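[step 3/7] fold_predict: job queued, chain A
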Amino acid sequence: MMPADDAIPSRIMTTAEVARYLRIDRSTLYKMVGKGQIPGFKVGSDYRFDRDEIDRWIIDQQGKR
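[step 4/7] structure written:
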């Protein structure tokens, strides 16, 4: 029996999920992705984020301190 779709963790995150994950305001996230400061892509008019890319970005940012 196949698990329900919602039982499989999604690698693709919404702006709300990433903002919560990074503990920043969504408006800050929109500014960052608009300036190319954080990896993301558009699906229609909405931004989406790959969780693995966000995790790599976090590690990269920690190395810049």
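[step 5/7] annotate
The chain has a mean pLDDT of 89.
The longest strand covers residues 46-50.
exit 0
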